[in-house]
Amino acid sequence: MIARPPAGRTMGPLLLLACILVAGCDSAPGRARTEAEAPNSRLDFAAVYKQNCSGCHGENGQQGPAIDLANPVYEAIVDDATIRRIIVNGQPGTLMPAFGHSAGGLLTDAQIDTLVHGMREQWLKPGALSGQSAPPYTSTLKGDVTRGQQAYTAYCSACHGTSAQHGPKASAVLDPTFLALLSDPALRIIILAGRSDLGMPDWRHQLANQPDIAQPGHPMTDQDVTDVVTWLASKRSLTPGQPYPQQ
């Protein structure tokens, strides 16, 4: 049997404990912070980008696992509405989540405006397309698997190879599990804009610092890009990461 202290001795410690709990509840773990207190409430582009975007897209928009947002070609191909839509709703079929309040995310409309404006102000460069017209961000054409394999061989295999194991100069994009992580739109924009931070040329196959893989005068057409995406999509694994035997 546990002995209970006299009633008169318990009130002081209990009152002290209550005061401590009340005073500390503002910083209690799990308590929802108000919008004014949350770090995301800041409308400074650098702060909002660093907290919400840099983990995937890299510091200063480069060298991340996802598309390099600081790529002037990417910024020239997409418009403000597309950037906003992707931030608000995410990108289905990829690891890009929804950030907008309307889609269950943490960012307000004002914070999303800050991101869109900051990206355009810092990374959109006049003349990035050198006066050329890029294939559209979204195509209305129908892709063909056979043509896609041929276009991949012509435009992509010199760097990425023809197997799922390795490429001569770049990563093997034919890995079925890797392809399962990318949606068709994500594949398309990478082909269109390239990854200049990783040495991958854009749809024109022009990259100033790697003349050995540049093919000036032979840019990919809308149909070429659409066909390559269609062929790559056909190589996706239905069970990514699982070593199931082929049936």
Word description of this protein:
- With 247 residues, this protein is mostly helical.
- The chain folds into two domains: 40-123, Cytochrome Bc1 Complex, Chain D, domain 2 (Orthogonal Bundle), CATH 1.10.760; 145-233, Orthogonal Bundle (Cytochrome Bc1 Complex, Chain D, domain 2), CATH 1.10.760.
- The chain is 40% helix and 0% strand.
- It has eleven helices and no strands.
- It has helices spanning 11-24, 45-52, 54-57, 72-77, 80-89, 109-123, 145-155, 157-160, 176-180, 184-193, 222-233.
- The model is unreliable at 1-37 and 207-214 (pLDDT under 50).
List the helices and strands and how they pair.
Layout: H1 11-24, H2 45-52, H3 54-57, H4 72-77, H5 80-89, H6 109-123, H7 145-155, H8 157-160, H9 176-180, H10 184-193, H11 222-233
